[in-house]
Amino acid sequence: MKNFKTLFVGFAIFAFSFSNAQKVGVVDTNYILDKMPQYQEAEARLNSQIDTWEQELKNLQTEFDQKRSAFENEKVLLIGDQLKLREKEVLDLDKNIKTTTSLRFGKTGEIAQLRANLVQPFQDQIWTAIKTMSDKNGLGIIFDKSNDVNVIYLKKSYDYTDKVLDILLKGTSEKDKKSNKK
C-alpha cells in the first residue's frame, strides 16, 4: 500500500508538471529596432544633434587652449588686476567646458535623456507587439537576447523576433517588409 501511495504521488506530480509547463520564446529587440524605419530616422536626428554638440565642445576646447596659451605667454607682462582678470577668464572657460560636458554628455545628461525619450515609444510598441504575439502563441516567458541574456543555443522555432517585427511593420508595404528582413 505504501508503494502504491508513493507511485500515485509521483505520477500525480509528473502529470501536473507537464500540464503546467510554460512555453518559452526569445526575441531580439535590438534587431527589431534596427529594422524599424521610424527608429532609424529618430536615431539619425539624435546622432546629428550629438555631432553638433561635440563640434561646439571642440570649438570651446580650442578657444580655451588658445586663451590659456596666450595667458601663459603674457603672464609675465601682466600685473595686478589684468593678471587676475585674464586668469579668471581662462578658469571660467575651463569651468564652462566641464559643465557643458557634464550637462550634455554625463550619465544623466541631455544625451542620455534624449536617448531615453527616443527609445521609450519604440519600446512601448515592441512590448505591445510582444504581448500580442505571446498571447497568439501561448507563450508564458519571453527573453530578450539583446539585453545581456546569454543564449548559448537557440532553436529557430523559439525565436519569435520576426513575428514581433511582422506585427510592428503591419502598416508598411510588403516591399518595405522584405527589405527590412534582409
Mean pLDDT: 80
**Helix share, percent:** over 70%
Distance between the termini: 63 Å
Low-confidence stretches: none
Percentage beta strand: under 5%
Structural class: mainly alpha
What coarse outline follows from CA principal-axis ratios? rod-shaped
| Total count of helical runs of at least 4 residues | 7
- Order of strands in the sheet with the most strands? 1-2
Q: SSE string, helix = H, strand = E? A: HEHHHHEHH
Structure write-up:
With 182 residues, the chain is mainly alpha-helical. Helices cover 73% and strands 4% of the residues. The chain has 7 helices and 2 strands. The protein has a two-stranded parallel sheet with strand order 1-2. The radius of gyration is 29 Å and the shape is rod-shaped.
